[in-house]
Amino acid sequence: MVANIVHEVFGHSLVCVATGARITVLTSVFFHSVPGSRMTDAGGPMANLLFGLLLWGWMRRGEPARQGPPFTRFVLLMITVFNLAWVAGCFCQTGVSGHGDWGFVIERLHPAAFWRGSALITGVGLYWLALRTAVRGLNLFVAADEPDRGRRIFRLVAWPYFAAGMAACLAATLDQAGMVAAVRGAAMETLALNMPLLLVPLFMRRRPAFSQRDVIDRSGAGLAVIAFAFILFALSLGRGMRFGV
After folding, report:
1. Please, which pLDDT band fits residue 64 given cuts at 50, 70 and 90?
2. Distance between CA 219 and CA 75 in Å, rounded?
3. For residue 45, what is the enclosing H or E element?
4. Domain extents for the chain?
5. In this structure, how many other beta carbons lie within 10 angstroms of the beta carbon of residue 186?
6. What is the pTM (predicted TM-score) of this model?
7. What's the rounded mean pLDDT across residues 129-150?
């Protein structure tokens, strides 16, 4: 949800307004403006990249990564990873198929093979950064001698991955313009483009873990806040907002 809001609201929408264009459609999956522009198209992925790198730099300082309740730190870690993975997916989608936000940015730029190849290389690099960030952060929550360490590592990544996909698709079912297209787009943005995150356990086995781990206690208050945020997200961006031109 955070990555989506950063992408659609703080990325596409703010750039659109700043350039003097008008928003016509704003949902959790689709964004349209009149007139369209490369700057507006680039705003979404660039917002995810900037926000993800800011959080990444903050967590790289070391102290913030080990301060505060483990539940909160784990949520912040996942927000960082999902923002980096989102922009990585945008670049890779353009590099492979020519579609997506970045595809509109490089449209009609020549040579096309160079720009698509550059997008693919950039996307792979950002996926690598997202995976390394996840590895570094998850090492705080998994001890080196923990039984079934690999299974626990996979669960710590798989639960947020599938929860994000489910939340995105459920919110998209409320889309007023077209539920099928919205759900398809939501599944692409979350389940398909974030799939490389499931490779995190392979990277974890190559890195040393701490002898002791921080226990992520289930936070009732934290889960309640997330549930309330999802309801607001579904009824606003999930349902979508359309503006007259």
Report:
1. low
2. 11
3. helix 38-60
4. 2-242
5. 26
6. 0.91
7. 84
How many Å apart are CA 108 and CA 124, to the nearest integer? 23
Distance from CA of residue 155 to its chain's centroid?
18
Residue 137 contacts by C-beta under 8 Å, 6 or more apart in sequence? Answer: 59, 65, 73, 74, 77, 80, 81
Write down how long the chain is: 245
Burial of 36 (0-12, 13-18, 19+ CB in 10 A): middle
Is there a contact between 24 and 81 (Cβ–Cβ < 8 Å)? Answer: no
Residue 35: pLDDT band by 50, 70, 90 thresholds? Answer: very high
pLDDT at 206 > cutoff 80: no
Report d(CA 62, CA 35) in Å as an integer.
44
Q: What is the percentage of the chain residues whose pLDDT exceeds 70? A: 94
Strand order in the sheet with 31-34: 31-34, 22-26, 241-242
pLDDT of residue 245: 53
Contact 24, 235 (CB under 8 A): no
Nearest to 158 by CA among 215, 186, 198, 211: 198
**CA dihedral over 188, 193, 195, 197, signed as positive or negative:** negative
Using an 8 Å Cβ cutoff, are 59 and 119 in contact? Answer: no
How is residue 118 written in tokens?
């550059």
Q: Residue 25: phi, psi to the nearest 5?
A: -140, 130
Amino acid found at 121: I
> Kind of pairing, strands 31-34 and 241-242?
unpaired
CA nearest neighbour of 45 among 128, 117, 106: 106
